[in-house]
Design a protein that fits this description.
Elements lengths: L3 H6 L4 H8 L14 H16 L10 H17 L3 H19 L4 H12 L3 E8 L2 E8 H7 L15 E2 L2 E4 L1 H19 L3 H4 L8 H14 L18 H11 L6 H13 L4 H7 L8 H11 L14 H6 L8 H5 L3 H19 L7
Antiparallel strand pairs: 1-2, 2-4, 3-4
Helix pairs in contact: 3-4, 3-5, 3-10, 5-8, 6-8, 13-14
This protein binds iron/sulfur cluster (SF4).
The site of iron/sulfur cluster has 11 residues, from helix 11, helix 15 and helix 17.
């Protein structure tokens, strides 16, 4: 039986929505002064996610926690920046993961059922020295597991019996928390969410967050092109790539910079891994682990950003500065500006008409 505290921990559940409906409040009602605590908590959740801080569940006041979640979601959607939605989804997913991996077995089953319609079975199976706590239908497993790049998640590497995949509790927690993220991100594409505007009545509460979005948006600009634009890479990144191709041994900072840069411009783990193949001490398992860690797929699940130009300068990694370098403070800023210039040039070359 899910309690109010459980709904505060997992406000994405259907039961949490029913609980909220019980109040009969509309979004506009929440702008009234008596609900200011809920609005402030919603703003705090969005701000923490934008800042990359951990969202901590407040146990003292479960009602506020439950009611603040859909409002925070509305704010995240209403800020009209894909990166804000992704950050919010990631922060919520991490928060849930930390709770789910410590959760009581029966509660985990209820969360899986109520949140995603998954039929999770608790068992205690030992296979060749590996202990499993749960079994999940293969179809449900495949809704999420292919998103993870570690070989451990591939179906061929799993213990499968009568159409059910056997899992440890931490793995169930990972699948569920990733589903939380998917649910938030997917919903952003719905027509009514895309057309949604935050009511003016919340304007004052959101002022600070809007300023933050504007400031950080320079680095996470929505209009950054999708897919890698080779010619848009800044000189520092080109220099590291050329050192890698020559098989030179790189400093930790150079490895971190190239990995974070490539991941942040949308390159996948396998392609980043290929860059390191010619390095003398290349160890595929170790390199893959490090790249996945930096991409936020394992470990702390924080996606790291490349260092700023100042930092790269102090490590001697800023090379061959050009005119655009004079205007930027971050290699990703360089990349985005240059990639847009290239895209605009391509449009002009096609006769000034943008091809969708
Ligand atoms: S100024 Fe920045 S972007 Fe340009 S080469 Fe130096 S570190 Fe890279």
């Amino acid at each position: 039986m899910l309690t109010r505290e459980d709904l505060a921990k997992y406000p994405f559940l259907r039961k949490a929505s029913s609980f909220i409906e019980g109040y009969g409040l509309t979004l506009r009602d929440l702008a009234a002064p008596e609900y200011s605590g809920i609005v402030r908590r919603a703003v705090e959740r969005v701000r923490d996610s934008i800042e990359g801080r951990r969202i901590v569940t407040d146990w003292k006041d479960p009602e506020t926690e439950i009611l603040a979640y859909p409002l925070a979601l509305a704010f995240a959607y209403g800020l009209k920046a894909g990166w804000v939605i992704r950050r919010f989804a990631t922060a919520e997913s991490k928060r849930c993961y930390e709770l789910l991996k410590m959760e009581d077995g029966q509660r985990l089953i209820e969360v899986a059922e109520d949140g995603f319609g998954w039929r999770l079975e608790q068992n205690d199976v030992n296979v060749e020295g590996r202990r499993f706590d749960f079994a999940l239908g293969v179809t449900e497993y495949l809704e999420v597991a292919p998103q993870f790049h570690s070989a451990n998640w591939k179906l061929v590497n799993r213990y499968l019996l009568r159409g059910r995949v056997h899992l440890k509790q931490s793995e169930v927690a990972r699948l569920l928390s990733e589903s939380v993220k998917n649910k938030i991100v997917k919903r952003a594409a719905a027509e009514e969410v895309r057309r949604f505007e935050v009511p003016e009545a919340f304007g004052l509460y959101l002022e600070e967050v809007r300023r933050l979005v504007e400031k950080k948006g320079r680095f996470y600009d929505e209009e950054a092109p999708v897919g890698l634009v080779e010619e848009a890479k800044p000189p520092c990144i080109m220099a590291i790539i050329s050192d890698l191709a020559a098989g030179k041994s790189l400093s930790h900072m150079a490895r971190f910079t190239i990995t974070t840069f490539m991941i942040n411009v949308g390159e996948n783990v396998d392609n980043v891994l290929k860059l390191f193949r010619s390095v003398a001490d290349f160890d595929e398992g170790k390199a893959r682990y490090q790249i996945e860690h930096i991409a936020g797929r394992i470990g702390s699940r924080t996606k790291y950003a490349p260092p700023k130009c100042d930092v790269l300068r102090s490590f001697g990694l800023c090379v061959g500065v050009n005119a655009l370098c004079e205007r930027v403070r971050h290699p990703l800023q360089y990349y985005k500006i240059r990639a847009r210039e290239i895209a605009r040039g391509a449009v002009r070359a096609r006769g000034g008409r943008k091809v969708a």
